[in-house]
C-alpha cells in the first residue's frame, strides 16, 4: 500500500500514491478483522490526512488505533500530514482488553510528528527500531521513549533538527549522560 519497503517513496510519481482518507478508513475496517497482520507499509501516501479532519476520528488516527497497534512493523514514512496526535491510539486503544501495542519497528521518517508523540510511542514496550529521521523530535522528547522502550536498539535521527548533529550517532550514550543520571 506504500511506495516501497524503504523509508521513502520508491517511485518518482507520487500522484500514483492514491490512498485517500476515505480509502484508508474503508481499508481499516477490513484489516481490523485480520487477526494475524504483522506488517503494514503506507510510505509515501501523500494524500492521506488532507481531509481536514483531526483527532481520534481522523483516518490515520483511526488506522493506528484499530490496525497499526496490532502490527509488528508499521511504516508511515513520507506521510507529511501525519501528526503526533494520530499516534494516540498506540497508548489509548478502544478497549482495555486490547493489551499493549505489538510494534517492534516503527518508521515515522519525514512526517510532522514531534515530542507530543513521545507518550504514545512509549507505550510500545517491545519496540526495537524507531525511525524518526526528518521529524521535529528533540532530545527531550526522545529520552522518555528510550526509558520506556527498553528493547530499543536502533534509532534513526538523520536530519532530526531538534537533536544536535554530534549527538545523533551516539544518542544512547547521550541519554545515559544527560537523562538517565538525573
Helix and strand layout, with pairings?
Layout: H1 21-31, E1 39-41, H2 59-66, E2 73-75, E3 105-107, H3 118-121, E4 129-131, H4 139-148, E5 154-156, H5 165-168, H6 171-180
Parallel strand pairs: 1-2, 2-3, 3-4, 4-5
Description:
- The protein is α/β, with parallel strands linked by helices and about 180 residues long.
- It has one domain (about 25-180): Leucine-rich repeat, LRR (right-handed beta-alpha superhelix), CATH 3.80.10.
- Helix content is about 25%, strand content about 10%.
- It is built from 6 helices and 5 strands; from the N terminus they run H-E-H-E-E-H-E-H-E-H-H.
- It has helices spanning about 20-30, 60-65, 120, 140-150, 165-170, 170-180, and strands at about 40, 75, 105, 130, 155.
- It has a 5-stranded parallel beta sheet with strand order 1-2-3-4-5, with no helix packed on it.
- The chain is globular.
- The termini are far apart.
